[in-house]
Amino acid sequence: MEKYTALVIGASGATGKALVQQLLIDDDCKLVRVFVRNTPPYQHEKLESVIIDFDKIENWHHQIKGDVLFSALGTTLKQAGGKEAQYKIDFTYQYNFAKMAAANQVAQYVLVSSVGASENAIMFYPKMKGALEEAVKELSFKNIHIFQPGILDRGVDDGRFFENLAVKVFKGLNAIGLLKSQKPIPVKTLAKAMITCIKANPTKAINYYKASDIF
Fold this sequence. Notes:
By secondary structure, this protein is an alpha/beta fold. The chain has a single domain (4-153, 186-214), classed as Rossmann fold (3-Layer(aba) Sandwich), CATH 3.40.50.720. It is 37% helix and 20% strand. α1 (14-24) links the parallel β1 and β2. α1 (14-24) crosses α6 and α3 packs parallel to α4.
């Protein structure tokens, strides 16, 4: 694979941070351009930060240029303050960004979705994630990689109480040999899989990765 430029949204989240850290030490990656609201608390010779307002894409859309877009943006209902605000972040911002990346001829797109994502789901969250999957699949990327991880082990207390509790519960069950198929996925493992997939010379335009594939 030729050296590539990586574009990242969601770089301030646990998965995004792990992804950026691994991209910076990847010899095949020549530049990591992150689109963030605030300047990251770290610097690197390969890191370029673009400070943006997601509601004003017309001001910076010309900078969405590179070889692959990693989309790890997301929030919780509690953090967002309501379904409308969460939908704006998890669907609208991500879709608008992906749409512009495709228009700017970015070749590959990597999306962190969710287990159970389906536009036909009854629950709000998986329905929203499923709708995003279906929307981005219509865009003109050469390859689309959709990750549907189960419970993520972020390794930090980020305010996701129920998810952090679930990680502890499943780790306890896994330790005694139960529910190993639902083992929490460390964000570092997910990030590594996201980078690996773009180098695998995929033959399919749309590729899905579930928990077993990620491990």
